[in-house]
Design a protein that fits this description.
Elements lengths: L1 H7 L12 E9 L3 E10 L2 E11 L2 H4 L1 H34 L8
Antiparallel strand pairs: 1-2, 2-3
Length: 104
């Protein structure tokens, strides 16, 4: 699921280093709540990050469902973060590009 979100945002997951992006993904299962966090770090700065949580009494009955819901909530938010960050970066690049005839 994480790879699909990244690929939809035009990122290509690789196994070893040599690229400017690093993915951090964590599932923290507590006795009641599950918290999922994901961050994409680009050149030492957070490019996109999200958190999803689920839990409560249902954790005792359907632990895998709680984890799955937390992951899906996190990935939905992460996908939105990637889209906004990419739009901002594209807009910034377009804004910073020299305009023909404007600069000498």
């Amino acid at each position: 699921d994480v790879a699909s979100v990244l690929e939809d945002a035009d990122f290509s997951p690789v196994i070893d280093g040599g690229v400017p992006n690093q993915l951090e993904f964590d599932i923290d299962e507590g006795p009641i709540n599950t918290v999922v966090t994901v961050r994409l770090v680009r050149r030492g700065q957070v490019f996109a990050s999200a958190e999803g949580r689920d839990g409560g009494p249902r954790s005792l009955i359907d632990r895998s469902g709680v984890v799955r819901n937390a992951v899906h909530r996190c990935l939905r938010d992460f996908e939105d973060q990637l889209n906004r960050a990419s739009e901002w970066e594209t807009g910034r690049a377009a804004y910073a590009a020299p305009q023909p005839g404007y600069y000498r």
